[in-house]
Design goal:
By secondary structure, this protein is mainly alpha-helical. It has one domain (about 5-80). It has helices spanning about 1-25, 30-50, 60-80. Helix 1 packs antiparallel against helix 2 and helix 2 packs antiparallel against helix 3. The mean pLDDT is about 90.
């Protein structure tokens, strides 16, 4: 389990650096904003599953933070694309 958490932590770091560099280099086109929102969802889901300990609980409890994450990211997407 410890090895898995270390790998997840590394993935979170890589995705965060990717998002930072995209913003720093001003490469945020409409498509890239979609990519960033998707990576944000992936990062959020990894945190929910591995760092909040929700990986092995029943689906109905896992859906609560996942639905919240989808609502927030969808709201950001709608705000950006309008």
């Amino acid at each position: 389990m410890k090895r898995t958490v270390e790998i997840v932590w590394g993935v979170l770091i890589v995705l965060t650096i990717f998002a930072y560099l995209l913003g720093k280099l001003h490469l945020a086109s409409g498509f890239m904003v979609g990519v960033l929102l998707f990576t944000t969802f992936v990062k959020g889901q990894l945190v929910i599953d591995y760092f909040m300990g929700m990986k092995n609980v029943s689906l109905r409890y896992r859906l609560i933070p996942t639905i919240w994450l989808v609502v927030v990211i969808s709201s950001i997407a709608v705000s950006y694309y309008l």
